[in-house]
Q: What sequence folds into this?
């Protein structure tokens, strides 16, 4: 046993040295960034980056706002006409002081978005605006729309009142405040606010054609 003792000692020293070297190497590396589940944006993306040959339309809207309901079909027509040359971003700005169901409607749209059906719920809310605007409680009506879209209704009901959905709408509200937006509908085209007087199909089409030339 004594004959092998020097080799045992040498081996132990080598192991200690290797362990120390490994620790020093790792301590010099940057810590991995923490991963968090990204909150789904109400629109297809959280920002509106400029892209060559593409015009970006950003809308701050309230589902219970009648003028927003009037602008909605114009935006749809513009998108249908220009296709991929136009990117649409919708941000929620529920005016809760005057529209009692606006916040719940925004939550319904975002909750549908968690199941990949944001735009479908968005369209249904605007198409049926007059039906649900004066409802005492929007939840039953929102659930019927969720069933119509084939959503997981139990999940949708839970998501509507979840902190995750609330945070998504809050982010849109913060975005509106940071850009000085306090009324709906408010549109930006390539970052420039559109005058309310120009919120017509003809004016929007003319503006987009000029930008795409």
A:
């Amino acid at each position: 046993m004594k004959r092998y003792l020097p080799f045992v000692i040498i081996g132990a020293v080598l192991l200690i040295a290797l362990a120390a070297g490994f620790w020093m190497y790792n301590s010099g590396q940057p810590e991995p960034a923490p991963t968090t589940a990204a909150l789904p944006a109400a629109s297809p993306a959280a920002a509106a980056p400029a892209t060559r040959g593409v015009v970006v339309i950003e809308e701050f809207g309230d589902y219970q706002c009648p003028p927003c309901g009037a602008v909605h079909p114009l935006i749809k027509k513009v998108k249908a006409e220009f296709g991929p040359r136009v990117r649409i971003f919708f941000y929620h700005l529920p005016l809760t002081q005057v529209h009692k169901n606006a916040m719940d409607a925004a939550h319904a749209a975002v909750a549908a978005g968690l199941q990949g059906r944001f735009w479908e719920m968005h369209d249904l809310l605007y198409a049926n605006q007059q039906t649900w605007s004066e409802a005492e409680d929007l939840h039953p009506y929102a659930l019927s729309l969720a069933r119509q879209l084939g959503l997981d209704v139990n999940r949708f009901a839970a998501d509507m009142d979840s902190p995750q959905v609330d945070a998504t709408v809050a982010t849109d509200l913060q975005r509106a405040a940071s850009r000085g937006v306090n009324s709906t509908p408010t549109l930006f085209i390539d970052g420039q606010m559109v005058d309310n007087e120009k919120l017509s199909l003809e004016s929007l089409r003319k503006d987009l054609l000029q930008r795409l030339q």
